[in-house]
Every structure is written in structure tokens, then in C-alpha cells.
Design goal:
It is a single chain. The chain contains three helices and three strands, in the order αααβββ. It is α+β, with helices and mostly antiparallel strands. Strands 1-3-2 form a three-stranded antiparallel beta sheet, with helices on one face. The mean pLDDT is 93.
Length: 94
Amino acid sequence: LKRSCAYYGLKAEIEPVDSIGSWEENIAMKPAYILEKLKKNKSPLLWVDADAAFLQKPEFSLFQGVDFSVRFMEVFRQDPRHALNTATLFVNYT
């Protein structure tokens, strides 16, 4: 993630966070962490999980006028419990 952000000239705050137990407990920290960053930076936030990499420079104009964006995965259409992928989230400072 760091390498792809640097390659595309993207500002990034990448910080290690200690595990608090299980995978489920760790991902449950995501909303509070995102809220903390929104309050600190007072600007929109694109969250990308640490095990990801950018394959091209993001087109941030796609998010104009959007408060929140998440990926809907068609492959899980029949099972809505898994349909939303939160590995990449856009959260506007609104």
C-alpha cells in the first residue's frame, strides 16, 4: 500500500494498529478509527485496507457530492451478508 501510494503521489496516513484479538474484533475498530481521522483532518477520507495496493491513480472526482461510498459485490447478490466490501471506503467530511 505504501509503495503504490508513493508511486501515484497520494497522501497517506498508514499506521500500525495492535491486534485486539480476532479478525472480527480488529475490523470492528475500523469505524472508530475512521471517525478519529475525519475529526483530526477535517477532510474527506478514502480508507484502503493495508493489504491492498493501487493499480492506477484514483479518480477522486467520482466522489463529488457523495457522503459515503462502498463497493457492492455482485457475486454475493444472493447473500447480502457478504455483499458490501469494506476494504475500500470513501467517507466525506459532511
